[in-house]
Amino acid sequence: MANLDANTSPDPTAVKGVQLDISGCNVLLVDDHPQNLELLVAYLEDLGCEIRTAADGQGALDAVAARRPDLILLDVMMPKMSGFQVCARLKREPGTADIPIVMVTALNEVADVERARDCGANDFITKPVNKAELLMRVRSQLQVALLQEKQQRLLAELRRMSSGGSGG
Q: What 3-state class would DSSP assign to 29?
């Protein structure tokens, strides 16, 4: 059997025990309060991921356009453009629809969680953020994203192999 990853090095989705290596991922943090961004950066720095920040919804859209993140942690209550609006806009676009988005907010009513889900959020964390919960959810979302990316690469390779004919 051919090694489908022979031309890639190193493979960030290589299985190491149960964990996948997320250290090459980049995470975009979006919050209009600098103290919240500082706290989230401090909580996530041990993951080894690249951490980028944006101070509002438009900044988030600009950051995504400049370089696609592997995960977005998105505050809900921001001026001009809410996190719900940013999330819905990103999820409508084919090039960004599959970026995992975790809403981070002080809102904690069932209706808020439903609204986050309805606009396309993958997960929802309430403030004040618990570091252990945040790390677990970020790792989980990144690992799922890496597995989906790996699956797409493998499916594309299988399609190329099957359309090339058996030759023998």
A: strand
CB 38 within 8 A of CB 68: no
Are 50 and 103 in contact, with CB atoms under 8 Å apart? no
- How far is the CA of 47 from the CAs of 24, 40, 139, in angstroms? 10, 12, 8
Residue with tokens 């001009």: 80
User: Before 94, cis peptide (omega within 30)?
Assistant: no
Per-residue pLDDT, 108: 79
Q: Dihedral sign for Cα 73, 36, 51, 81, please.
A: positive
> How far is Cα 166 from Cα 160, in angstroms, rounded to an integer?
11
pLDDT along the chain (168 residues), means of 10: 36 48 94 97 94 97 98 96 97 96 90 92 94 95 91 92 69
CA 144 from chain center: how many Å? 9
Residue 59, classed as helix, strand or coil, is helix
The whole-angstrom separation of Cα 153 and Cα 63 is 25
**Do the beta carbons of residue 120 and residue 91 sit within 8 Å?**
yes
